[in-house]
Specification:
5 strands; single chain; about 200 residues
């Protein structure tokens, strides 16, 4: 089995995070930047933007998420949500994934034949990068999961980090040491999912 296939198998949704990782913040940043640099995108648009959070910024982000949802969920139902969000704040950092809408709009103007497709293609490119980073972290022994609290947190995220209005939030990826293994995952038979013709 190749190293890449092994990394694919390691990539799972890890929800119980800790701080016991073997890489520095700078080393983690370099891994993530390498993924971004090498990620494919439609028309080489490179429309994906990242915000990488460590330390105080990381804690402030998840505190903001918690406070935002607390206002929207009744107290009697908030317990499970609070527990989940607090688990995301116990790791090392978080990657925020965005798409630069100005880039997409320019492509729509320059190539009107494909105008409807560019928003879809940009999100597909973003998803590829999410998977690349998730797998690269897993290969380094770092656990992560992919979260989607947008659009509930969009405006407050922009305010918190003074981000351009044209950056559209897509997903959040908290990461850290793996303090509990991923849950059991069931699989449909491959013959129901793959058709091979010769």
């Amino acid at each position: 089995m190749s190293c890449f296939q092994e990394a694919i198998q390691k990539r799972r949704s890890i929800y119980t995070l800790g701080t016991q990782v073997n890489l520095s913040h700078n080393e983690i940043s370099k891994v993530i930047e390498s993924c971004l640099f090498n990620a494919p995108s439609a028309f080489n648009s490179q429309s994906t933007r990242l915000v990488l959070l460590f330390g105080e910024s990381y804690q402030k982000f998840w505190e903001m998420v918690l406070n935002t949802l607390k206002k929207l969920i009744s107290p009697e139902n908030f317990g499970p949500t609070e527990k989940k969000i607090l688990s995301f704040s116990k790791g090392v950092g978080t990657v925020l994934f965005f798409e630069e809408e100005k880039t997409i709009q320019k492509l729509q103007k320059d190539y009107p034949t494909y105008a409807e497709q560019f928003p879809k293609w940009s999100e597909q490119g973003n998803a590829i990068l999410q998977y690349m980073i998730w797998t690269a972290l897993a290969e380094k022994g770092i656990g992560a999961s992919l979260q989607h609290y947008n659009p509930l947190i969009d405006s407050k995220t922009h305010q918190l980090f003074q981000l351009p209005d044209s950056w559209h939030l897509i997903a959040q990826m908290p990461f850290g040491s793996i303090e509990a293994p991923a849950g059991v995952k069931t699989h449909l038979p491959l013959e129901k999912r793959v058709h091979i013709f010769k």
